[in-house]
Amino acid sequence: MDTTKRGAFNGASKLLEPGMLDQARLAWRLLRDQRVSSLKYAMLVLLFIYVVSPLDAIPDLLPIIGQTDDLGAAVATLMLMIRLLPKVAPEHVVDDHLRTMNRGSEEWEPRAQGAEQVIDARFSVRG
Q: Is the pTM of this model over 0.70?
């Protein structure tokens, strides 16, 4: 017998996963960061166009049902942004935010850039 739940709210449990809140915080920080390309707003612009557009999957003239497709599109867009924004942002920016969010947590490790990481720097010693 299959014990998995099936229904309209089956995917809603993904919103409550433990790491999802941290991913949402990271995406919010990346959305506000000036070092990330302005293309980060493209999904929000497309969502806005869909919501204000008279063309909908379900017409908005129907009292409650008409707004559910807009709500579904908004939730799907936000979930997609939460997942995609850290992948399209520059790695050093994501690492900076992760470091700031975790503040010395032993769980966090920077992304491996190869066998060895080279840091090119200048310094001087005054005696």
A: no
